[in-house]
Amino acid sequence: MKFAHATTVDFPSFENKPLNPGLCEPRKVNFQFNNIPKLWLNNSSVLTHFFNAMNLFLPAFESFMVRVMKNQLPCIKNTELELPIRGFIKQEATHGQTHQKYNKTLQAQGYKFRTALKITDFFFTEVLEKYLSTTMCLALIAGFENIASIISYVGLKSNMLATADPTMRSLWEWHFAEEIEHSGLALKFLNHLDNRYWMRALGGLLGAAIVVVLLVFGMILLILQDTNFANKKTFDDLRKFLFTEYKFIPLMFKGVIPYFKFKFYPELEDLYQYAEKVFPYSQTN
Fold first, then answer.
1. What is the C-alpha separation between 151 and 255, in angstroms, rounded?
2. Which residues, listed in sequence order, are joined to residue 101 by a DSSP beta bridge?
3. Residues 6+ apart with CB under 8 A from 261
4. Which residues are registered as beta bridge partners of 163?
5. Which has more pLDDT, 270 or 200?
6. Strand partners, 14
7. How far is it, in rounded angstroms, from Cα 259 to Cα 197?
8. Is-contact 99 62, C-beta < 8 A?
9. Which residues pair with 29 in a beta bridge?
């Protein structure tokens, strides 16, 4: 398995700072989205727009998480969670800014999604944050992050980005590796404030539902704007992505189900080995 790497001295895309789940320090990034092809992953509408759909809505997700967690930082002041959560927040802020930058490239390529983003921003700011308790918002975030860590694991383990445009491959490998680096932290934050099972389970269900709805909607929105999407390759790629070659649906179910056990402990060691290949010479604590 090969991963795109950057050096700590001269990083064309991202800084190769060693993996450190105890601090989750953000890395400097320098992504330049110039001359990105419209179908940048294996000339596939399905694969390209799976990632593009995530990219569309990530800034709204990240901003929501940053606002909620910043607001609750006083609750973990002077605890062992404070430093990694502060790092987690900074990482998510960098993710949001970077994916927002790529969304401008998608707009320049002719894709139209501005209304969808406005609706999503309204949903997070005017619905979730106004009508859910802070604890439930944290439960949603823990659910989001569990899904994100599974997607990151599947994406890196399957090496599905092997034939991607180099900049886009670097973007997603960096993001996936940092998701793995701070995986489990949102759940620890939630448990620090409220460790009731029903809170975690309900947040996990709602979080998974929101992710699935936005991903499916985003993929449909973008694929339908590709003039040549209705062909045999598209349907073959969808089958390979979901069930056969990459087995996205079976692997997602396998990863998500344990979250709803009464006692759930993330198997982080299984994830870290893939993040370490993106940030070589890493040492976990």
1. 9
2. none
3. none
4. none
5. 200
6. 29
7. 10
8. yes
9. 14
Q: Which residue has the tokens 């062992």?
A: 80
For 236-263, what is each residue's pLDDT tens digit? 999 999 999 999 999 999 999 999 999 9
CA dist 226 and 275 (Å) reads: 33
- Give the sign of the dihedral formed by CA 156, CA 159, CA 160, CA 165: positive
* Residue 74 clears pLDDT 70, i.e. is over it: yes
Q: How far apart are CA 247 and CA 43, in angstroms?
A: 19
Residue 6's region, left for phi above 0, alpha for psi from -120 to 50, else beta, is beta
What residue spans of the chain are helical by DSSP H?
45-71, 82-108, 114-122, 129-131, 134-158, 166-181, 185-193, 197-223, 232-242, 248-256, 268-278
* DSSP 8-state class, residue 9: S
What six digits make up the tokens of 218? 């985003």
Q: Tally Cβ neighbours within 10 Å of residue 96.
A: 19
Partner residues linked to 41 by β-bridges: 164
